[in-house]
């Protein structure tokens, strides 16, 4: 039924202008605005899109909404920190971030989680 549908995902923020600045200027993604409604479209490598819309009663996602595979995880984390991006710390059984905010567990990729200005959780992870 949806085999050829060009599916996309979306999530809310509480301030569209802050989101536009963060995704466009800090993360350096290709961002366009949809004039008919207060919505941003993130154009991702590989052809995927993400819609970001402003919602007055926005609640940040409690799970990772977007993952960015990178070759140099440590360098990317350091650069994002220089730009003022806040990283998450986790200390759960089987999942612990180190002093660099990177989880280097025995299972899964090395990964670091950070938040956008609206508190939504994103990640950078070592390309596999």
Automatic annotation (TrEMBL):
InterPro entries: Glyas_Bleomycin-R_OHBP_Dase, Glyas_Fos-R_dOase_dom, VOC_core. Gene3D superfamilies: 2,3-Dihydroxybiphenyl 1,2-Dioxygenase, domain 1. SUPFAM superfamilies: Glyoxalase/Bleomycin resistance protein/Dihydroxybiphenyl dioxygenase. Residues 5-127 form the VOC domain. It comes from the Bacteria. It holds the Pfam family Glyoxalase. Coiled coil: none annotated. This is VOC family protein. It comes from Dyadobacter sandarakinus.
């Amino acid at each position: 039924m949806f085999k050829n549908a060009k599916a996309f995902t979306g999530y809310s923020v509480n301030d569209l202008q802050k989101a536009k600045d963060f995704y466009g200027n800090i993360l350096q993604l290709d961002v366009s605005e949809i004039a008919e409604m207060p919505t941003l479209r993130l154009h991702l490598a590989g052809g995927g899109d993400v819609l970001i819309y402003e919602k007055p009663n926005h609640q940040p996602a409690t799970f990772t909404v977007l993952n960015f595979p990178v070759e140099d995880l440590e360098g990317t984390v350091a650069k994002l920190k220089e730009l003022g991006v806040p990283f998450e710390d986790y200390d759960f059984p089987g999942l612990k971030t180190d002093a660099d905010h990177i989880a280097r567990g025995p299972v899964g990729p090395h990964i670091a989680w950070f938040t956008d200005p609206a508190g939504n959780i994103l990640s950078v992870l070592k390309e596999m």
